[in-house]
Each structure stands twice: as C-alpha cells, then as structure tokens.
Specification:
- A 5-stranded antiparallel β-sheet has the order 1-2-3-4-7, covered by helices on one side. It has a 4-stranded antiparallel β-sheet with strand order 6-5-8-9, with no helix packed on it.
- The termini are far apart.
- By secondary structure, it is of the alpha+beta class.
Length: about 240
C-alpha cells in the first residue's frame, strides 16, 4: 500500500490499482473531497482525450504518413565505428526543420489511449504517479510516437507548460557495447541533449524528464558513447515531430 494515499488519485483514475487498494481508496474518496475532485477531473480529462483519439485520421493523411514512415525506416543500429554521420550537408536535426523534411512520427491528438497503456508501467513510475497524472491533464499535453524495426516503439508525452515529459520505450534493442541512447530536443537553434537511457532485459524503459520543451519542434534519439555527447554524432535511430 502506498504510504500517502493521496498519491493514488492518478492510478485510480487510470484503473490501475489492485482490487484491495481500489476498494480501500474508494472508501477514502468518501471522506476526502480533494481526492474526489482530483479523480473526477482526471477521469473527465481521460474521457475527453479518449474521445479525441478515437476519431480516425483522414484516409489521405493516414496513407501519406504510413508511406513516409516506410521510406524512412532504418535497420538495427550498428556499432559506433560504423555509425558515422553524413560526410556533407546540413546535420539531420537541421534538415528536419525545413518544410520538405519527411515526417517520421505518428502524432496522436489525444492521451486517452495512453491511460490504459500505463497499467503495468506504474511500478517503474511509482514515485512519479502524481506527476504523471498532472502531466497528462495539462492543457498543452501531447503524445507522439514512432514505431521502428522489430516492433520497437518510443512514445513521449510532452507538456511544455509544466517543463516535463514522460518517456515510454518498448521492444527496443539494447544500445551497443559501451554506448547509450541519447534523447535530443530539436528546435531552430539546433539539438540540445535531454537525457541518456538504455533499456531493461525486456527492451523497456519508463521515466519522467524535466526540461525546457517550449519551442521544441521534434525529439530525436541517437546512439552515443557512454556518458553521452554534446551534439549528435550520427544519424538518428528515431525522430518524433511535435505539433508546435
């Protein structure tokens, strides 16, 4: 049982509590107006976002995005000595910002689907349950995802107004020996390092991120030497474009 019962509002709203904790928390809701109000607001937000996400995209848009993803899929990342950037031309994070850049992310318009998917991930985010709930309820929160080779999936929920984001990774191969994945925030000024991560034995990672996401046009993932790099040393493994 979580020591502070007030921290269970997000998990309850996501229907992610075990039966015994759910019953105990429902008793608490009967005597705690603050928690009851927060749960009501979170459930209303999830319902609103879920309704938005349920509306299918126009067929032409869906076909265009899928075609562009097929054209830009990459093979599994090679070791660093074979992971060199292009010999000439603008860096990939600059090319991404021009109007002709290919779209390599599927941008979701709501977070309702993500509420259900957080079940089973709350253990990794146990200390951040309140932050997760508040992040998803932020008025400017948006969810972007990118599917890669072998079923790899990277999803990021970003709320610039809170200076926070949540990273969820599934089915990602581990970084090569003595290397790590690095996350980049990309804007008109270039690429700024945001976080280093690697995956567990199941190819997963779940973590909260802090940073200045205002003006961020995209989020990139590269493979870098242990300890990270001040600038990307090669082409990205994945790029997720934000709706700016």
């Amino acid at each position: 049982m979580t020591a502070d019962i007030h921290l269970l509002t997000g998990a309850y709203a996501a229907d992610a509590l075990p039966d015994d904790e759910r019953r105990f928390f429902e008793q608490h809701l009967g005597v705690c107006a603050a928690c009851a109000q927060e749960v009501t607001e979170l459930q209303a937000t999830a319902a609103r976002l879920g309704a938005a996400a349920a509306e299918p995209p126009p067929p032409a848009l869906r076909a265009r995005v899928l075609a562009q993803i097929d054209q830009t899929r990459q093979e599994a990342p090679p070791p660093r000595e074979e992971h060199a950037g292009p010999a000439g031309g603008a860096p990939w994070w600059q090319r991404l910002l021009v109007p002709a850049a290919a779209i390599v992310a599927v941008v979701a318009v709501g977070l309702g689907v993500l509420v259900g998917d957080l079940r089973g991930r709350l253990d990794a985010l146990e200390q951040d349950q309140t932050r997760v709930a508040e992040l998803m309820a932020a008025p400017d929160a948006q969810w972007v995802e990118h599917a890669g080779e072998g079923g790899a999936l990277v999803r990021v929920v970003v709320a610039p107004s809170r200076g926070e984001a949540m990273l969820l990774v599934d089915n990602m191969p581990p970084a090569p020996h003595e290397h790590v994945y690095e996350l980049w925030l990309i804007d008109d000024a270039g690429a700024t390092p945001a976080a280093l991560f690697d995956v567990d034995d199941d190819g997963r990672v779940s973590r909260m991120l802090d940073g200045d996401f205002a003006g961020t046009a995209a989020i990139g993932v590269t493979i870098e030497p242990d300890g990270g790099s001040p600038q990307p040393s090669g082409d990205p493994v994945m790029v997720l474009e934000l709706d700016t």
